[in-house]
Request: fold
Amino acid sequence: MDSSIPTYHLKGRFWIESPQGTFLGIGRVLLLERIREYGSISAAARSMQMSYRQAWELVNSMNQHSPQPLVQSATGGKGGGGASLTTTGEKAIELFWAIKQDFDLFLAQRSEHLQL
Amino acid sequence: MDSSIPTYHLKGRFWIESPQGTFLGIGRVLLLERIREYGSISAAARSMQMSYRQAWELVNSMNQHSPQPLVQSATGGKGGGGASLTTTGEKAIELFWAIKQDFDLFLAQRSEHLQL
Reply:
């Protein structure tokens, strides 16, 4: 490779906004996947070194920006009753990764012949 | 508008990387445009509430990640001799805004029918 001609690549990130603000980004999607895995918001938060409060606020934000909640909590008090994804939560994860695929493809295609 | 069906939009940002790291993002492009406007790195930095040191480091990074410098300084010591964009600098600005147009178009198109 000729070191005088660097290979440039396009990088980026994306997120989904509702009129009220951020609805879904990579961090929120990873949190949803952890909730699915651990069946609990507090265990999911712990596994990501996130405070329960922060995780709860993210879940609350997602639930409020959606026609249907993404996460449902069983009764049992603060972090005690377990939590699971709704069908809408599953759809949100699917939608995010589908967009990610298109986004990555755009970046890869637009990276071709990127030179000054 | 039915408040139960939020309108989601895709948002994002992008930047150009060389194998050595970030080459060009919106902040760097705005700095280049200010250098063109003010004819000086220090005046450009001041106009953006950026330190001369930070502006100089960004310019240095861009120059080093490119086959040709983007900014050339006249002699005259630290911030004293003026600076101007090279043809490569002009091309970099042009390239960035051209990609921005494609990127925004992608986001707008992928935002259509975005629902859960």
About this structure: The longest strand of chain B covers residues 9-18.
